[in-house]
Amino acid sequence: MSDQNTGQIDNVLQEDRLFPPPAEFSAAAKIGSMADYQTLYDAALNDPDKFWGDIAKEEMHWFKPFDTVCTQSGKDAQWFTGGQTNISYNCLDANIEAGNGDRAAIIWEGEPGDQRTLTYTQLHAEVCKFANALKSLDVGVGDVVSIYMPMTPELAIAMLACTRIGAVHSVIFAGFSAEAIADRNNDASAKVQITSDGLFRRGKVLPLKATVDTALEKSPTVKHCIVLKRAENEIAMTEGRDVWWHDLMDAASDDCPATPLDSEATSFILYTSGSTGKPKGIRHTTAGYNIWVKKTFQWVFDWKPEDVYWCTADCGWITGHSYIVYGPMANGATCLMYEGAPNHPAPNRFWDIVERHKVTILYTAPTAIRAFVQWGDEHIKKHDLSSLRLLGTVGEGINPETWVWYHETIGNKNCPIVDTWWQTETGGIMMSPLPGATATKPGSCTQPLPGIVPVIVDESLTEVGANQGGMLCIAKPWPGMLRGIWGDEKRFEEQYWSMFPGNYLTGDNARVDDDGYYWIMGRIDDVINVSGHRLSTIEVESAMVSHPNVAECAAVGRPHEIKGQAIAVFISIKDAEPTDELRDELKLHVRKEIGALAVPDDIRFTQSLPKTRSGKIMRRLLRDIAAGRETAGDVSTLEDLSVLAKLKSDDKS
Ligand code: WTA
Fold first, then answer.
1. CATH of the domain at 537
2. From 534, 563, 565, mutation site for ligand 1 pocket: most ligand atoms within 8 A of C-beta
3. 7-26 as b/e, with b when 16 or more CB fall inside 10 Å?
4. pTM for this entry
């Protein structure tokens, strides 16, 4: 931002500016006014069983009808018990039966520029074949299948094939290290691994299979590894264990009826970071998850059959599960799927895709938007983006300045922006504007969706008033909520339900303003958000401390212009000199232990870390130092004040 215009810019960015939906948008929208929203919200609040029961009957195929809509409350809530359905059936067969088999389900573009379109009928056939392929490897209901793949249609096919036969998929983002894969495979007792030879990233080939080979040496439960040929790089195949995707598919029939599954059957687990070092496998179920992602997709994106919808997430994260695969496909949407980097071969790649495929809805992350701002408007201006009618963001808060840029430069001032707040645990979007109804405020995720009852409390569990920050909890169960942490019932209870019994603790701080709009204020715990990806500081610390020259380490988040937050670590070393070589070695070490996304931006060597008298590392101080701020607040509990002075004067990497 230029200095000379600060006053004006401040004015533009005032947080209470309201952006009402364009009149034409509201006129064509399914929910076109706040009165419509209120009617829905009240119906869900006043009689949730009727509200969700009616939706479930209307929008889902039931092999066996359910007896009850929601039993119990809090952590024990169960949805649509007694019923049997199948997510893959609802995403594929149901669309074909409705006469939409010839509609494009996936329009895919590979990073090198190759393209494929799969209609719902074609996708159905591929999924059935792959489901039979899995069965041929003895995969059945409840077996865990670990997926480590590039963003190709086969990734979606693998997921839909698992849910078709009741196998539980665990998708691991293809940037994680061999160690991280092995940890997750072991925690889940995965039976089969799916991967590819390689993955294209910025024109280079990353050797996925080689990483998986290392992981499988430490994953004793995995009996087979299915390998998709994608990048044609040289790989080793282990006789008896490894099998090519195409060989299995050649042998498989495309007839595979969906298995009727209990509503509460586990559909998938997805590992995410919590406040301890060990990632947790968030467990989602069948019927409730299916309904939640289907309905929220309709509400938030005002989806219409002619839309070309593009969510730029990776299926390795919950956004890819819920809003590339299951939510859109449960509705019969046409989804664009892109394999590669946003700046390959040039920073205009996204806008080139939007123009060529006439994308109407774009759902991306603030970290990407900040990169676009930095790369410059010239890459955007040369493309016709007039097909766009709606924009969305997810993964972290968007700062108002970036929001306004998104609105003006990408949306040409006439696309509503849906800032969607939710979590891996919530299954789908919880708070968001409804684009035809809600007047938006830059930086606010506005209001809860029907069925969601947020409550903000202070430490004494008293509800706070308007404009006072507090811990964000959800007071009532909703169909898409997590049902557990894989293999760790105790942690599930402690982490989410014990602080405020009966209420779900989100782990985020938030405030609500005088208009009832919600503003997310960041995490309560030691989770940091790097480029929209959750990492626990303790995970990074554990990786660091496993290096022989690290005596002690503290990792904190610091503000970063593009990534939102970057990781800064403070390290006291042993038996080594504080050199740049050691810094590089430590970065490499974290890359190996967790993956590239956890590599710290700053490594600072220090003789000791600031601690309280009881021995707790004072992260608050370290956060201030990492951010280059004056250390604010109370330091009276600091054990050795000279540590602080030393840290401030120490070199920055
Ligand atoms: C943060 C991603 C502000 C938040 C879907 C949450 C957000 C965590 C937003 C979940 C948003 C996500 N505004 N913060 N619109 N969306 N967050 O599990 O801290 O990867 O708790 O799920 O991201 O991250 P997760």
1. 3.30.300.30
2. 534
3. eeeeeebeeeeebebbeebb
4. 0.90
